Model the fold of this input.
Amino acid sequence: MRLERITGKKVEEYLTKSKSIMIPVGSIENHGKHMPLGTDTLIPNKIVELLEEKSDIMVAPTIPYGATNTIYGCTGTVTIGTDGLAMILTRVINSLYRYGFRRFLVLNGHGGNIKAIENVGIEVFKRGAMLADLNWWLMAGELNPDWKGGHGGAEETSGVMGVDPGLIDYDYINEPMNLIDDIAPNMKTTGWGSVEYKGATVVIPREYKNFSANGWYGTDAPHLASKEWGDKMLKRMADYLADFIEDFEKTELPEPEAPCGWQVW
Ligand SMILES: [Zn+2]
Done:
């Protein structure tokens, strides 16, 4: 059931049976030369479509932008920052809370969003409600270790193939990861801003474009992706979410803090 497609009256009817609402959150960002910028938004949207075949949960419109400061600077990437996402999510949830929603299921497509979502979740909990942060790509890797993947690797590439194989640029699917030791020859770039120096990791925050010649990152090379993998994985996520929603509904909501304890709402 889509919030934007029904009347307020129908929302009132829904609230007599359930206080749950799903809010998909994505990102528009570079995922390597082979992937569409909307990867982190398209995949949660597809999972929601599959979920709707087995769940009547209310779904709010997707927030398509996220916090992606590290990938900012790679052409096409848009960031609203952790503060921007926290503000938008807070205001969306605040509005929904006013009408009686108390269980907020955030279906997240992007790692950079986690901090904002969790910060908002803590505030939600203090108000006698709950937020569940559902990070699909991490959960998929737990449900099946063969699916575990990095940024723009085979896991996400398969996910996009599950949305529409025509969105992949196959001319670049065989590109190597190609991390650059941009700080110093004896400081090996190991990942998101981190370098390895004499056996220990040091984080030197900087934009991804400084140390990645391609844009994807992980041990799961994109050329290993397949539509079959994507279809199976997205369906598994939808099945999992249908179960989770059912049991999350049965949980007790926390006691709200006294009004004077409320923050920024
Ligand atoms: Zn992604």
User: Anything to note?
Assistant: The pocket of zinc ion is lined by residues 31, 39-40, 110, 151, 156 (CB under 6 Å). The longest strand covers residues 20-25.
